Amino acid sequence: MRVERNRILIIDDEPQIVRALELLMQREGFEVRSASDGIEALSAIEDGAPDLILLDLMMPRMDGFELCQKIRSNPAWKNMIIVILTAKGRDIEREKGMALGADHYVTKPFSTREVVQLIKSALEH
Amino acid sequence: MRKRAALLLVLLAVIVLAQCLVTAFAVFYADGTSADSEQFIRLRQPFGIWIALIAGLQTAVFFVIYLTILKPLNRLAEDAKAITKVNPSGKIDIESAALLEDITDACNALGNAFLEARRATIGTASAGSQKTEEHEVRLDSLLKDLKEGIVVCDEMGRILRFNAAARRIVHDSDALRINGSLYAICARQPIENAIELLHQELTRSESEEKIDRLRFRCSALDGSIQLSCCLHLLPSGKDPSWYFVMSFEDMTETQTTLLRKQISLVSLIESMRSPLANLRASAEGLAAYRDVDPQVRTELEGIILSETERLSNFFQATAKEAESIRISLWAREDILSTDLLQCAARHLQEVHITLTFTGHPLWVNVDDNAMILLIEFVARRIAEHAGVSELEVETLLGDKRTYFAFMWKGMPIPEPQLSGWSGAQLVPYPSSLSVADVLRQHDSEMWSKRHQRDGYATLVLPVPFSQQKSSAPVPYPSRPIYTSLETFLEPPLLDAAATQPLSAATFVAFDIETTGLLPAEGDRIVAIAGVVMTANRIFIGDVFHSLVNPGRLIPGNATRVHGITNEMVSGQPSVDQVLKAFQVFAADAVLVGYDTAFDMSFIRSREAESAVRLRNPVLDILLLSMAVHSHTPEHSLDAIARRLGIDLDKRHTALGDAFITAQIFSRLLPHMEERGIVTLGQAYEASRTALKANRGT
């Protein structure tokens, strides 16, 4: 039997976008939690691994690249889908994000509709 | 002097003339007297004759004096003047000046002494001939008009010549003087790196593309001036064997303002992304969910209002900044990757770090000095981090960039440590060049992760391609040479296999096509082909050929190389299925390929997740070609095939390349036999030797 995968963790230090994304994801029927930096996120993940994380790169204390590296070094979390949502729009930054283990890389500003679509199709596979 | 001589001449002439006149008057007066005049005439006649005689004698004496003394003296004066002003190497030579011989000799000696003194003053010991003097005069007048500063130095950096602009650019510093050291003005190390790189270029063979000048940045006068320099080497044909000419411009202002503007523009653009995202999410939320409750609705509207205002302010600031920005021209040059690595490796040797490198030399577009410093810095930090003294760098070709992939035994470098490097200074105070500066300058980022090889880690440093030198489509094979010892270390060749004669072995010549160059970055196999052969025969009926569904999109530039499209692979078996079939096909044959480290890295990357274990011995025609044709550096698949007289009509497909590999191998076998390479073990040994000999070239 296939277990439904619908737990999302939003990690961003901008409360505005966290609020907007939370609202959106709840409406789409996902189970949503949020964290405002890498360290907070790491303890949230340890409490219960989400199926997918929406990850900002530039955050205080522990940034997105480091969190990505940490998640990917733990085999228990290898199925966790990492979607980077970031203001870092340079080509080479995208490449670095993917190289460090992200599954998708979306630059801000983004269309919420497209992000929802991306999350749904990523969780289905 | 000349006037007095002329006056003297006139005076003499007047005296002589006066004597003649007196005589003539006396004769005339005697004619007009009384009766006793006859007696008088008788008396007077001898007197008039005497007077005339004396006058004639005096005139003759005068002419003798004039010819022997006055005239030569006059010429002596003229010659001496010519020597002083016009022709310093001239001689005084007056034929009729027997009386003045001593004076002429003395004057000549004086002239010689004068000439010597003059040469010594000019200080150009080598400039003895008049021709050189002329050249120098012409060169000086050329240099004078240039707006760039020019200095000419010998190999020690001793200044031999400079122009007025150079003096102006270094703010009339006293350090800029003939015979002074250039390094008293400019930072030594960028200049020495440039010289080293140009020397490397000189040693390359004639047929290859070469560079004869290098641009770089360099700080002068303790960092108060930033120079944009261009350096040429000039062979001198004598000792010292070369000079260098450096032209330079003051970039201080341009550079700092450009950098400041670039940074502020990037940060402004970045700060606009968040408000824009918030705005869009809120607006889309409102539009999509009409039934949202009034409280949430008010909240979203509030976000829209405040973010719109924030955005407008950022926009204003960005527009203002963009208006004032000028074109940024970093001193980046096209250079071969191997030249950079060689230079860095040599410097690292001094701190006992061995940097070996594999991969094809690729043209990159970098600030060479900054990049060499960064490579050295990274290598030192990795060595520190991992406690190793040996590092390997692979040069990899990607879609948009070239990659220097450092590899070492140990753990990857954690991201916070890596980002902590960014502020580190690469040059000593007071100049400033940080890791972040160099990365920004090359639009680059570094990252570190586990290497596909177990127990190893990698750090990737992407650098820009050369724009000019690779703008033409990269000829196939476009991938770097992957050759590494790994292929030969695992699986180890069993003793029984080592003694097997090549003439009795069965081989499978094989090739793969891929989505790209980096299996660890998600690139996958899209086709595998192989053909069975022995030393005497290629079994053209006994082939393996299968397309593979890579489970990802095939990039357009990969399709351009091998012609395999996404449509062609949809519905094809997965790589694990195909590899399993290939394993059955290959059985216990010896695999033969070109640059097999590349193919094997793709095959090995699947081993963890599939049951496939290809443990066949592997021979590499690239290394075997290097072993038997060590006289040439040309070992591309095309070059080898051409050398052995093989047609290249079926290139660019896995099966076509497998056939070409088979043909090459069958023609290499007789060459190998001539060199006593007749068993598999000997072929392995020859390959290993060739690999070591060709490492980094």
Can you walk me through this structure?
The complex is a heterodimer of chains A (125) and B (697). Chain A has 125 residues and is of the alpha/beta class. Chain A has one domain (7-124): Rossmann fold (3-Layer(aba) Sandwich), CATH 3.40.50.2300. Chain A has 5 helices and 5 strands. Chain A has helices at 15-27, 38-47, 64-72, 91-99, 112-124, and strands at 7-11, 31-35, 52-55, 81-86, 104-107. The longest helix of chain A has 13 residues, at 15-27. The radius of gyration of chain A is 13 Å and the shape is globular. Chain A starts with 6 loop residues before the first strand and ends with a helix. The model of chain A has no long low-confidence stretch (mean pLDDT 89). With 697 residues, chain B is of the alpha+beta class. Chain B has 5 domains: 2-120; 148-250, PAS domain (Beta-Lactamase), CATH 3.30.450.20; 255-324, Orthogonal Bundle (Helix Hairpins); 333-464, Histidine kinase-like ATPase, C-terminal domain (Heat Shock Protein 90, 2-Layer Sandwich); 486-694, 2-Layer Sandwich (Nucleotidyltransferase, domain 5). Chain B has helices at 2-31, 37-85, 101-122, 130-145, 164-169, 188-202, 252-288, 294-324, 337-349, 368-386, 415-420, 435-441, 486-489, 495-498, 556-562, 566-569, 575-586, 596-604, 621-628, 637-643, 654-674, 680-694, and strands at residues 149-154, 159-162, 213-220, 225-235, 242-250, 333-336, 354-358, 363-366, 390-397, 401-409, 447-450, 456-464, 507-514, 525-533, 538-547, 590-593, 618-620. A 5-stranded antiparallel beta sheet of chain B has the order 2-1-5-4-3, with helices on both faces. Chain B has a 5-stranded mixed beta sheet with strand order 7-9-10-12-11. Chain B has a 5-stranded mixed beta sheet with strand order 15-14-13-16-17, sandwiched between helices. Chain B is elongated, with a radius of gyration of 44 Å. The chains are: A alpha/beta (125), B alpha+beta (697).
